Amino acid sequence: MLAISFSGFGQIKLLTPDSPVEIKITSLIFLHTQKGMPLQQGQTVNQGDPVAQFAPQPTKRSDKFEKQLRESIQLYNKKSFAQAAEVLKKAVTQEPENPFLLEAYARALYQIDERKPDSYQVYKKLVS
């Protein structure tokens, strides 16, 4: 996953394949989270502090490619990263806005040294 570490309120470090880039932020918006852990304005956030409780993933994450997504995750867990990425190649072109497919695809690509730049591009699309 895209590594994000908090170094204090108003700062966030995005770790890219090249180097950490520090940027100023004024707000964070979390999607797919559950209520119960709201941050107060001006609250200091340190690395490792919980900032949100994420909702569980839905049972069905893709209308057309659920089988391929499950297969890719199994291959990833077996460390067959190239196969895991290949299984999702068609899926991410046909469902380019599906965050579950994009995350699994980017994660598999990241484990393949020569595909790390491709992984970074998929992660950028995922967080944009």
UniProtKB/TrEMBL annotation:
SUPFAM superfamilies cross-referenced by the UniProt entry: TPR-like
Protein's name in the database: Tetratricopeptide repeat protein
Q: What species does this protein belong to?
A: Rufibacter tibetensis
InterPro entries xref list: TPR-like_helical_dom_sf (IPR011990)
